[in-house]
Structure formats: C-alpha cells, structure tokens
Design a protein that fits this description.
Helix content: 25-40%
Shape: globular
Number of helices: 7
Radius of gyration: 16 Å
Largest sheet: 7 strands, mixed
Structural class: alpha/beta
C-alpha cells in the first residue's frame, strides 16, 4: 500500500472521501490481485512457510483478499486454510476462486479462533488502515492464536507515520505504520515471538503510474513453551 506513503507526500487529516478498509477493498476488488498477485517476497514467504508446516496444518490468512496467491497456495499444499477479510467483495471473490479454503467476512479484531489454535498465521499488509494501538493489539492477538512453535509470517510497509492520508489505487485512505526497527520490536517484545528472518525489499505494483513501495517481510515463531502476548 503506498503512493506517497513512505515518503510522506500525502496530506494529513481533513480531506473528504476517506474510505474505510472494507469500502476501499470492495472498490479495488480483483485489481488488487492484478497489481500485487506476483509479489516475489510474498511468494517466497509462502514457500518458506509451506516447507515447515506439518501435513494438514491449520492456517489463518488475515486480510485474505481474493484468495490468491496465499490461501490458494496453502490449500493446494493440503493445509486447512481459513481466510478472513473485512471486504464482502473480496470474500465473495475468494470463495469462488479458492474453493479448497474457507473465507469469512470478519475483522481480525473480532475473529474467534478455534480452541486448538493455528499452526500458522499469515498477515500480509492487513493492519495498515488501523491506528497504531489497534495494530499492536491485533499482532498480540494473532501471536496468542499460535500453537507452541507456531509461525507468524507477516508483512508491512515500514514507515513512522500515524493517521496519514494517502491516495492508493485511486482511492483515499488513512494509514498508520511503524518503522522497520519498531515493528520488529513489537513482534519480539509485545508478542513474545522469536524473529527468525526479516527482509526489506522494493516492489512496484502493476498499475498505471505505479511507484516503488518498500516492504518489510518477517518470519517469526512462538516459543515451544507457549509464551506469547495476548
């Protein structure tokens, strides 16, 4: 998510027409998959994850979008995949495109996990339209859903911004984020996770006039003793 985001070029507050996450992604629909569906760092993260999961693992895909590529790849690998998204349009598309997974229209803040938890949670850019405190709480919740030794694979746009208005894929939105160092600190200190790998990369979405975005991908693990933030 990015035009004018990392460099602070967009205006703060006040402008009309700012959309909620559900409204924005209802409007973007399949254009999101066309723009971001072949993101190399994301594909590498899913490949890394599938190589470490037990057969039939329970996996939650937060902000599952159109279901492709993440839920589709995990379901094809034989895992028990649940995708959640706030956008009704995205959920409908995902159900049609990836019948091997389940998709629910629900916010991560309201999702109720199964009692047995998840072997893995994927969270690729789903929190950027939340305020910072909400993002911290959501990360802690996701970490608490992992079984001991479970994996959280996540990505964000690293930037020290809060309540920043941007234009993204032709829509106005308000976003917040953390620097790369701060985000890694949240995973370790707030969520009690071990960060196994992190990587900064640039990606230019396949849209007219698309500009390079900086992305931070992180692979993290819950301790086998079960400790994680809640």
């Amino acid at each position: 998510m990015g035009d004018g985001y990392a460099d602070g070029a967009a205006e703060r507050g006040g402008a009309g027409g700012v959309l909620s996450a559900a409204e924005l992604f209802d409007g973007v629909g399949l254009d999101y998959e066309r723009a971001f569906g072949r993101l190399p760092a994301q594909l590498a993260a899913v490949e890394w994850l599938t190589g470490r999961l037990p057969a039939g693992a329970r996996v939650l895909d937060v902000g599952s979008g159109t279901g492709r590529p993440v839920a589709a790849l995990l379901a094809a690998a034989g895992h028990d995949v649940t995708g959640i998204d706030v956008s009704r349009t995205m959920v409908e598309v995902a159900r049609a495109q990836v019948p091997g997974a389940r998709f629910d229209q629900v916010d991560v803040r309201d999702h109720v996990p199964p009692e047995e938890g998840y072997e893995a949670v994927c969270a690729f850019f789903p929190l950027l339209m939340m305020e910072r405190e909400e993002q911290i709480a959501a990360l802690r919740r996701m970490a608490s859903w992992l079984v001991p030794g479970g994996l959280l694979v996540s990505a964000t746009v690293p930037a020290d911004v809060e309540g920043l208005e941007i234009t993204w894929m032709g829509h106005r939105a308000r976003v917040s984020s953390f620097s790369a160092e701060a985000y890694l600190g949240l995973l370790r200190e707030e969520c009690g996770l071990e960060v196994l790998h992190h990587d900064l990369s640039l990606f230019t979405p396949a849209v007219p006039g698309g500009e390079p975005e900086e992305h931070l991908f992180c692979y993290a693990r819950r301790g086998v003793g079960g400790g994680a933030g809640r």
